[in-house]
Amino acid sequence: MANMNASGVGDGRTFVMLELARRAVNTDLSTDLETNRIGLLATNLTINTNKQSLALPVPFSGVVRGESTTLNMDMGIASKSITIDGIIIEQSIKKNNANTGVTDLVKMTSFEIAQLLHSYVDSSAIHEDQSISKLIILYPSRVDGDYVTRSGVTDSTNDEELPLISFNWGNRQYDVPSWTKLETPFSKVIDDTKDMPGVTGFIDTFSTIHDGTQYPAITFSLTFTQASTVLSDFINATG
Fold first, then answer.
1. How far is CA 47 from the centre of its chain?
2. pTM of the model
3. What is the domain partition of the chain in residue ranges?
């Protein structure tokens, strides 16, 4: 069952993960699910898509038609972000870096995880061992990119039994006109944990609340902004 493709946090599972830029650089060393990824226990997830269109009122249109008219200039611009609220608990972190090439596995407390994330958000995109460059959100899917029910499932298949795909803003191929170029592909079923698609970008804000009544759990909130990471990926790959 594809729903097994989830990262472990504490004694549970999570379908939300942050991925370090190092993961894309060390593809030969990062072949399992957890390496250079940090699982999140999300309690609330908000996806924001803000379309930016230029509204142009037409002069004298109200005089001629008895009703004013506004033209919409669609410039193909939108800002996209994802806000996640949740809790941080102890977690095993598996990493490798540019210095050793060795994969290390350690179990960190919730306080160490919070500090780790704060330091990563404070870092620069060109430091691949510190830069969080991708957000992975897995969700169940019944219909493929051609608007066809996926093989092995039916209309009555429970969500827990459906295959998982990774969220992005790509359109299904069914809706993409033939003249479109360089479009983001609609997500395929996750069957390889080595290279999971996701949303590329950066963490814009990250905050934690250390509440003694919730000890040892730490409440967190973050906003991940979708953006291209082509420049930093090139620098990391050639550095």
1. 10
2. 0.83
3. 2-48+70-238
Mapped onto helix, strand or coil, the DSSP state of residue 75 is strand
Query: For residue 1, what is the enclosing H or E element?
Result: none
Report residue 221 as tokens. 């909130």
3-state secondary structure of 172: coil
Give every CB contact of residue 28 below 8 A, 6+ residues apart in sequence: none
Q: How far is CA 54 from CA 62, 174, 228, in A?
A: 20, 28, 23
Distances (CA, A) of 35 to 28, 94, 154, 183, 216: 11, 5, 34, 29, 24
Q: What is the pLDDT along the chain (239 residues), one digit of tens a residue?
A: 345 455 555 444 678 999 998 887 665 555 678 888 999 999 999 999 998 888 888 887 777 778 888 888 887 788 999 999 999 999 999 988 767 778 889 999 999 999 999 999 998 777 888 889 999 999 999 999 999 999 999 999 999 899 999 999 988 888 888 888 778 888 889 886 777 889 999 999 999 999 999 999 999 999 999 998 655 554 444 44
Up-side HSE of residue 74: CA atoms within 13 Å toward CB? 2
Report which of 118, 106, 166, 99 is spatially closest to residue 139, judged by C-alpha positions. 166
Q: Is 119 exposed, middle or buried (0-12, 13-18, 19+ CB in 10 A)?
A: exposed
Nearest to residue 128, comparing CAs of 31, 17, 16, 27? 27
